[in-house]
Every structure is written in structure tokens, then in C-alpha cells.
Description:
Chain A has 508 residues and is of the alpha+beta class. Chain A contains 14 helices and 19 strands.
Amino acid sequence: xxxxxxxxxxxxxxxxxxxxxxxxxxxxxxxxxxxxxxxxxxxxxxxxxxxxxxxxxxxxxxxxxxxxxxxxxxxxxxxxxxxxxxxxxxxxxxxxxxxxxxxxxxxxxxxxxxxxxxxxxxxxxxxxxxxxxxxxxxxxxxxxxxxxxxxxxxxxxxxxxxxxxxxxxxxxxxxxxxxxxxxxxxxxxxxxxxxxxxxxxxxxxxxxxxxxxxxxxxxxxxxxxxxxxxxxxxxxxxxxxxxxxxxxxxxxxxxxxxxxxxxxxxxxxxxxxxxxxxxxxxxxxxxxxxxxxxxxxxxxxxxxxxxxxxxxxxxxxxxxxxxxxxxxxxxxxxxxxxxxxxxxxxxxxxxxxxxxxxxxxxxxxxxxxxxxxxxxxxxxxxxxxxxxxxxxxxxxxxxxxxxxxxxxxxxxxxxxxxxxxxxxxxxxxxxxxxxxxxxxxxxxxxxxxxxxxxxxxxxxxxxxxxxxxxxxxxxxxxxxxxxxxxxxxxxxxxxxxxxxxxxxxxxx
Amino acid sequence: xxxxxxxxxxxxxxxxxxxxxxxxxxxxxxxxxxxxxxxxxxxxxxxxxxxxxxxxxxxxxxxxxxxxxxxxxxxxxxxxxxxxxxxxxxxxxxxxxxxxxxxxxxxxxxxxxxxxxxxxxxxxxxxxxxxxxxxxxxxxxxxxxxxxxxxxxxxxxxxxxxxxxxxxxxxxxxxxxxxxxxxxxxxxxxxxxxxxxxxxxxxxxxxxxxxxxxxxxxxxxxxxxxxxxxxxxxxxxxxxxxxxxxxxxxxxxxxxxxxxxxxxxxxxxxxxxxxxxxxxxxxxxxxxxxxxxxxxx
Lengths: 508, 297
């Protein structure tokens, strides 16, 4: 009995001691970078290195350093810009794209890049048998042919105004014709892999034969693998690494004013979406969604969940990042608790509505759920929160089944993706089971027309329609954070941090 | 025979009332500073649990947007968390939560466990054998693992956590009670009672149970402290009580991500867990000493 008594006391001592240690850990000293010409990046470890299979930020970051895309998307203007393709022509019917490849490009093994490599790469990515993630993205391609030694022509089945963006998909890195093992790092990219240790780090050195003059700006890049965000930021403070991307708001705030570190926040079109299933009660009555929208205080949500970073959402996936397509005239409904109550009563829920709000346990989503619970309760919408691990929330497509859920959607370079996969009738990830003929027609127009003005008009109408009767609440678009040692310049953080170019960074 | 007669005599003639017994116990507990501290802190938490709604200046989930992430001050004694909730109010109102969860869980586990232990120890035979082997198989699993297994099947909720506490601690309580019963049931006064033709139920509850009581009281206090730990651990792992409940373990878990900004939102609930567990342990220690002294005399 005596021994049993001591055990919990010991545990509580350890508990208190660990708290004290945790407090001390954040008080490390700051110092500048050491290695001249070497950039040390802290990131998660890699699981996949074959470009067709990569998905995480770290995997894409390495692939983008070792290989090249045919076209890039400019992070500032959000427009397609040349990379391996130095120029391109689109036929008048929008069905044929001809790319001219840059001259003097060679793979790390010394062989020259030719049109055949590009053909082979994209045929591999769209191969329906291999079932890569890109297969459905490139379904619309009828044929890919080398129309010259350095010229490739893609022919489409139907016009796709966003085809250049699709060609810049994260996986679309050009690899050598006939490659057996696509994880061998034999790319044309700005950096060559010197050493890869899966548990520790990957060491890259500049490709001396890189085809873009003056790039890369660094002699070496080391990507050091971390499993914990806090440890990454502590390493940055301590001068053990120079660059950290993707971190939580509190960690970003903690870097504010730290000498020697430049931190940046950039807007993205990523959002946490709250949606109510529209195909059965209670969501089948549009007044219920309307009441939820009226009961939501977006300013308070942005301030509490995002600590004021990011932008207020207007319940449509077309955010302010898509300057031309975003309609600032469409405003979300202002908060009106009484009106929400009245609508609920009209819909037959005068005594209140009880629902379970499912949310994954990552990012700001549990906090969003907690804030919504309080705000909605004032209007008589009572939710029980169920916080679930991501693999449970998304597992066996449970997220597509539940009535009320919160889902995180990452930032994409163009908005059509969200409409086609999330909101048109029968879409693969139509989690709200939304079906609206007018919306479907507008989305089809926006996705196929070659007339830019017509598309802008369609997107504007879509935003108005979703704000009025859409099944989703998008309260904010979240930003992405990065921080780099002030010894470096040329760092341009991307909305998808993995797509950040390392070859434009150089020592001051 | 003479011994049993003497004990019976004392318990029948000069039987003190429950109130008198309680104050004797309390006086004994307060004699040592450590035990007095434990008892005092425990009583303070008990009062917080009972009077929480009167003491908390803010609602448990009241979100004050303009006061979010504020350090402790006169208006928010323990500061506010990332969602603008008053940490002091949440810690105070969370006391009722932990007593309702760990306290009720322990009470149920002790009641059921003690009954099974009494029966198992007194009857023996195949019933005892079967029950004890079953409990052994449960005890072979570490408590937290068993809890996670159960929660995996039941799904995370308040009632699941309550059930987990009960299931995890029944075998332990039953074993302790059974061992005391086994040592008591061969004593002469029990034999005497049996010879006098008293019913089994009467022997169990009037003769054996009082002898089990001291050990049971200590065990209950210990189980309570472990139950606080278990409930808080499950909250911390995010598989127990669901947000936005003011469960202390859950509060620590939720504040972990913002510890660089709002450390107070983590330290105060963590300190509350530590303080309550330590006080309950000291109380258990005190109870044990007091009973030991009484038995020795």
C-alpha cells in the first residue's frame, strides 16, 4: 500500500517539472546564420520522392528543386509563366496547345532534354492503368505528341481555359523518357541531390548547368527533417535553420520582433468550410442554412480563430485572392440573431434545433466549432461538437455522410476546381449534397467558355447565388506563414508553401 | 471467544453516532500538517465544485472577443484563453466537472467493486475463481490502454469516460476488498456469528463489512486520485470529454498550441489537476494513518 501511495505523487511531480521545462524551452537565444551560401530549411520528412506520388509540402519542395515544371504560376500575378516551356501557342478553338521548350536543358545525368521526355512524363501521369492522382485531371487530353525536337503539342477533347494551370499541377514535373525508377532524383532542376537520409535530411547542391542564367542563387540547400512545428521555430530562433514555412498563428506571433528573422504572412484561398447536407432534413429546408448564416458572427470568428489574420469569407470558394474573379460587391449576410430565430421558427424549429457538429482535430477547426457553438446557441441552434482525428473524419468517406461538418480545403491557383469537385450536382466531393440547376449551368459556363468576360460574370453570379442559398458557410480564408533569416533575400512564399522556389533565394 | 465478545460489546454499548465518528476522524486527520493541508485543499475544491456557479465571474464558454488572449489581471484573475474565455471561471466551473466524472466514477466503481469483492471473498469456490480470473485478465492491461480500447469502441463522450473509470477500477477495488475479507472471515468472531446461526447477509454486512471499511476508505481515496488522472489524461489525449467542456485535461490540451501566447491558459488548469491529486493523496495517506493507529490500539 505504501508504494502505491507514492506513485501518483511522483507522477504529479513529473507533470509539474515538465511544465517548467516547457516554459524554459521557448527562451532560447537568437543568432545569425553561419554557412555562407547554404540555406537550411526545416520541414517534415519525405514519404514519397516519385513526382507522380508526392503530396506533402516537403515532398513538393524537394521535387520543385530537383525537377522542373513545364509552366509555373507566378505567385504574385497568379498567371502562368514559362519554365521548361519558353513559349506556347493556343489554337483558336482552345483545343490545341503547342509548347516550345527552352534550349540547352540537360538532366543531372548529362543527357539533353527533348520533347520525347515531356510526352513520356505526361503520358505516364495520365495513364488510366497506373491510377496516379493526376489521371482524372488529365482525362480531357486526347493526345500528346512531339511536333519537333523541342516542341510538344497537347490536344484536348473539349476546351479547358485552365489547362495551363493543370499543366502546373504539383505532380507535373518533367522526368526522363523511359525512367525505370522515378524516385532517382534525375531531374533538370536547379539543384542536384548529393545525399538523402530519410530520417535526417536531404542535401542539395546547385546544378552548375542549370538553364536559367544566374540561378540558383545558393551553393547548397539542406532540408532538415522535423516532426514538430514548435521545434522548427525554436531551431530558427536558435540559428540552427534559416527557413521555416507553415506554422500556427501563435508560433508566427511569437516570432514578431525577433532580431535577425523576417516573418511573412501571405493570403491564400484556403478555408475551413461549414456545411449542412442539403438533401435531407433539416438542411433540405434552405431557411435552416439561412438561419445558421444569420447567427454567425464572422468578424468575431476571424478575430478568435485566426487571431485577425486572413480575410472574411462570403460563403463562396471564390476568395479575394482571385482578383479578377472575386466580386467584392457580394457581401455575406450581416449577423442578426432575431432574424435567425424567426427563420428557424418558420422552418418548424421554434423550440430550437439540435445537431452534431463533426470536425477534424487539426488546424483552427476545433476552435471554429467551439466559437460557432456559442454563437449559434444564441439563435437556438444547439450543436454537440465531435472532434475526430483526421483519419476518422475522412475515413470511409464519413465526412460525406454526416449532416453538419467542418472541412478544410487547401488553396488552389484557380477557383473552378472547387466548383467542379465540391458543389455541382453529383460532384465527387459534394459533401453538402447540393444540387441546384442554376448553379450547375453557371459553373459549366465558367469552366468551358473561352470568353474571359463571360467567365467573370458567371463567377460573380455564382458568388451571389452561394451567399444567398448555398449550403456552405465560409467564414474566413486563412493565411500561410513563413519566416527566414535576414541573411537571405529573394524568398517568395507561395500559398501552397511546398511550391516556394528555392532557386530564387540568395545570400544578401 | 473472549476477544470477539469484547469487540461486540464495545460496538453495541458505547456506539458513537456517525457525526461523532466523523469529527473524531477529522480531528485525527488535522493532527499532522501534511494531512491537514491535504484535507483543507480537498475541501476547498469540493466547495468550488458545489458553489462554482456562484463564484465564477463569467460563463463557462462566454467568449469576450475584445478580451481574447489577455494576461492575468484584476478583471480576469487567471487571464483569458485564445477564444476570449475567462480561465478562472473555467477552472472553477471545471471543478464540478471533475468531481462529477472522477467522483461519481469512483463511487460507482467502489460500490460495485466492494460488493463483488465481499461476495467473492466470502463465498469462495467457483464464483470466486471465475470472477478473479476475469479481473486478472482486465488487470493485465495497463489502465490507460484499457481506457483507450474502450473509448475506441464507445466513441468519445462524457458517459464513455464515466464507464471507463468504473470498468477500469472495479477489479482493483474488488481485489483489495476480497483480500481483507479472506483474512477476516477465518477470525473467531465470524465463526461465533455463524455458530449463532446468523444469516450470510447479516454476517457479510454487519460483521465483515465494518472490518473492510478502513481499507476501503483508503482505497476509495486512492482510486479517486487515479480517476482524476485518468479523466484528465483522456481529456488531454482528446479522446475523453469533448470541447468546449471545461475539463481541466482538455483545457491543458487545447492551450498547448498557444502556450507561447497564453501560457496562463495551460498552467492554471494543470496546477489545478496537480493540486487536487496531491491533496487527495495526502488525504488518503492521512486516512490510512488514522485507521492504522486505531487498529493498533
